[in-house]
Amino acid sequence: MFTFTGLILKEDHGYSSLCPELDVASMGTTPQEAKAMLLEAATLHMEGSIEDGLPYLRPVPHDDDPRQLTPDRIVEVFRFKVDVAVHTYA
Fold first, then answer.
1. Looking at residue 68, which CATH number applies to its domain?
2. Residue 71 gets which letter from DSSP?
3. Residue 90 lies in a domain
4. Is the residue at 30 inside a domain?
5. pTM exceeds 0.85 for this model
6. Residue ranges of the chain with pLDDT lower than 70?
7. 6, exposed or middle or buried, with CB in 10 Å at 0-12, 13-18, 19+?
C-alpha cells in the first residue's frame, strides 16, 4: 500500500489534478471528476511501472510544484492510497 498527495487546481475551463510524488496529472469538468481521473491515472502508472521494472516515483521539482507557484488555484489537497497487487510467474 502506497500513500500519495493529490492536488485539485481550478483552471479556466474545469479542473486539473496532480500527484506531485508521481508526477502524474489528469483533468475533469468538476473537482470530483478530476480527483477520480487522478486516482485512475496514479493506479495505472504504479501498475505499469512495477510490471515493467521501472521507477514509479518521479517527484515534481520544488520550483514547479503548484503549491509553491500558484497556491491560490488549489481547490483541494488530499491524501490517497494505491494498493498494487504483485504476482509472480515462472
1. 3.30.160.250
2. G
3. no
4. yes
5. yes
6. 86-88
7. buried
Write the pLDDT tens digit of every residue in 35-59.
Answer: 999 999 999 999 889 889 899 998 8
Task: Identify the pLDDT of residue 89.
Answer: 74
Residue type, position 83, single letter: D
Buried b (16+ CB within 10 A) or exposed e, 11-46: eeeebbbbbbbbebbbbbeebebbbebbbebbeebb
Is 88 among the domain residues?
no
Buried b / exposed e along 54-85 (16+ C-beta atoms within 10 A): eebeeebeeeeeeeeeeeeeeeeeeeeebeee
The set of cell numbers assigned to 39 is 486516482
Structurally, the chain folds into a number of domains equal to 1
Residue-range definition of the domain harbouring residue 65: 2-82
